[in-house]
Design a protein that fits this description.
Two copies of one chain form a homodimer.
Chain A lengths: L16 H24 L6 H8 L3 H7 L3 H6 L3 H13 L6 H17 L3 H14 L2 H26 L8 H22 L6 H14 L6
Chain A binds a DNA duplex (30 and 30 nucleotides) through helix 1 and helix 3.
Amino acid sequence: MARRYDRGVSARPEVTLAQRKRQLVADELSEAALQLLAQKGFDGVTIDEIAATAGVSKRTFFRYFASKEDVVVQFLADMGTGMRAELAGRPEGEPPSVALRHAVWVSMAVCADRSDHAARALSVVQLILRTPALRARFLERQAQWRDELAAELGTRLDLDPDTELYPRLAAGMALTAFDTVLHRWSDSDGTADPSDLTDRTFAVLGAALDAVG
Amino acid sequence: MARRYDRGVSARPEVTLAQRKRQLVADELSEAALQLLAQKGFDGVTIDEIAATAGVSKRTFFRYFASKEDVVVQFLADMGTGMRAELAGRPEGEPPSVALRHAVWVSMAVCADRSDHAARALSVVQLILRTPALRARFLERQAQWRDELAAELGTRLDLDPDTELYPRLAAGMALTAFDTVLHRWSDSDGTADPSDLTDRTFAVLGAALDAVG
DNA sequence: AGCGCCTTGACACTGAGTGCCAGTAGCGGC
DNA sequence: GCCGCTACTGGCACTCAGTGTCAAGGCGCT
């Protein structure tokens, strides 16, 4: 998809003008959408309104985002890719519980730093968690991450994810942890420490089902 | 799922004529929808078509089901209620892993019996799992079940689900198990034994994260 | 200037989902 | 019988999400 042209002559970045333009429109749309949706609720805003605010037509909106839900969920896409990348980068012999804990922790890192970006992440997460349509789409995205994590675990442990049960279950547990941490963080309005929550969650998971703690 | 009333006679004075009529329409709609959707795909059928097949108007369809997704997902609602009921009915001192395993097993029981009903369940599950919009809604429903299971676990273990992490995590693990079993069963076209799958899944979960196997 | 390539806006269209209203069938009470 | 009361229904009009199509315009290249 993102093909790089080394023709980047005078301009510093290796991207063409058209690509940067496209990114600009995408950012503008995302900005407008998140702002309006957080303010007026998911059903209180139309696509026409979002597009108009961003200065484009409704038709153009759908050239950048597949649906109204997509523009919101897309905002958190980094979490998934970051999670998988971190897992893939973990040392080979590391036990799954540790590797997965780091993977979850990294994807929560966006929420941890004290910046505008974190504040925006909080409002987006809260919007998602209290809007059924968005929560559904977000869960679907998580299911996708789970499959990717399972695949990664499969190669790490040399287990076939289609035959063995462990990779998918372990990935599912990690995602359960992630989801729980996200909920707690959201409910605390961002005051809870994601890092601490993650550690405590994996402390329970590591000890597993029968050891209540 | 379709509630069966003894279509016998003038017994059942508890239920008025109007109520049975209403149930009849709901069954007819559900029947028509499942039939058509499984045959032509989720996007290949319109609500008008479903309603016409059931002999009612489109407007009436939406008086029985909230959305096109709802008519499908509703069909599996029993699984959730059954799961919670089984957990609530388990002996008091039983360890969570055993109680949860039974809860999951009970909700899979519908798939286990060799009848028309099981065949229908299979086609519905397969339809859901390969239709993104349905999968999303189904996952949302599962999230709801997880909250209920967590609440039930909280009372069983005398832990506050809003403070302690364990109930929600354990419920999440059970749902992960459920989802995995359902996927495997669906992928095997119903040839795999749900009971066996459940046992093997919980064998892994009980041993927990770091014990590969 | 000329030719592609990509992006855009405008228009028309389908289909989901909702609000509203008039008609009607069942179930009382009188 | 007749009169409400309630619940269910179909039809209509409407909003809005999402898609196909087409003509037009900017930009790079020769």
